[in-house]
């Protein structure tokens, strides 16, 4: 846990000290409304950003012994993103503003074990995950934002449990400032 926190502090301090590089990527602040949250994406270079999100996450479970259950949990995520298809999108006349493109990212997250809403209550106080993801982000002229990422990561918690897990996120939101 200490190593993950040190990594997050390093990434945060690096992004604060990075100067804006007038290129393809842009700083932006947005709000998610499907699962409430706030997100800030800051420029590191023409094709790279660091994305910080604080908000809520969703878990769904179903089985014969437990029936159908869900939980909504507080979480914090950060991603180091590399956008790889700006030129291809621009050549086709597609939007690349506000980081509208596809990306590869290193994803890291922390989440609580007690749900804000729902039945699934974990014995742990916190869990964490880290792993690579592929994502797609689109921001439309109206400010509407769609972001989806998929990947495979490594998860662990304060009880010593660990293992591989899927990293899936789908967010709908609104660009507030950029």
Question: What does this molecule look like?
Answer:
It contains 2 helices and 9 strands, in the order αββββαβββββ. The model is unreliable at 4-23 (pLDDT under 50). The radius of gyration is 17 Å and the shape is elongated. An 8-stranded antiparallel beta barrel has the order 1-2-3-4-5-7-8-9. Strand 2 and strand 3 form a beta hairpin. 29% of the residues are buried. It is mainly beta and 178 residues long.
CA gyration radius, whole angstroms: 17 Å
By DSSP (H or I, 4+ residues per run), the number of helices equals 2
Largest sheet: 8 strands, antiparallel, barrel
Spatial order of strands in the largest sheet:
1-2-3-4-5-7-8-9
The ordered H/E elements are HEEEEHEEEEE
Mean pLDDT: 86
Question: First CA to last CA: what distance?
Answer: 32 Å
Shape: elongated
How many DSSP-defined strands? 9
Question: Uncertain runs with pLDDT below 50, 5 residues or more?
Answer: 4-23
Proportion in β-strands: over 45%
Class per helix and strand makeup: mainly beta
As an assembly, this protein is single chain
Summarize the structure.
The protein is mostly beta strands. It contains two helices and nine strands, in the order H-E-E-E-E-H-E-E-E-E-E.
Descriptive labels:
2 helices; 178 residues; 12% helix; mainly beta; eight-stranded antiparallel beta barrel
